[in-house]
Amino acid sequence: MLVLKYLHVTFAVVSLCGFVLRWAWSMRRSAGPSGRLVRTAPHVVDTGLFLTGVAMVWAYHWNPLEVPWLLAKLTALLAYIGFGALALSRRPCAGPRRLAAFVGAAGAAGFIVAAALTKRAWPLWS
């Protein structure tokens, strides 16, 4: 199970680094590399992150409704996805809005990491 945990953490780090890189490209109005690998890698990494997370929930017999920190992580994940979608939107959008969305996504990601490390639903206030 330790291998599963480290694999999950690795996927999380790669996913966050990829998000920051894609956001930087979008802010520079640069498409960045446009190869097939660049287009499909985020989906592969995020799928691996999701599947290892589900596998850990199953392996540890966690019920998100009974494990408050896990429910907090899942809620923050929805915020991360929403803010991330706005931050990476292809529609012409004002820079300040994209920056605010990026800050929101980064804050949600930070919360997810803090909740995972402390195993608390409110890791910064407990």
- Unreliable stretches (pLDDT < 50, length at least 5) are none
Relative helix content: over 70%
Task: Specify the number of helices.
Answer: 4
Mean pLDDT: 90
Categorize the overall geometry: globular
Instruction: Summarize the biggest pleated sheet.
Output: none
Q: What distance separates the N and C termini? A: 28 Å
Would you list the SSEs in sequence order as H and E?
A: HHHH
Strand content: under 5%
Helix/strand structural class: mainly alpha
Number of separate strands: 0
Using only C-alpha atoms, the radius of gyration works out to 16 Å
What does this structure look like?
The mean pLDDT is 90. The chain is 75% helix and 0% strand. With 126 residues, it is an all-alpha fold. It is built from four helices and no strands.
What is the topology?
Elements: H1 2-27, H2 36-59, H3 68-87, H4 95-118
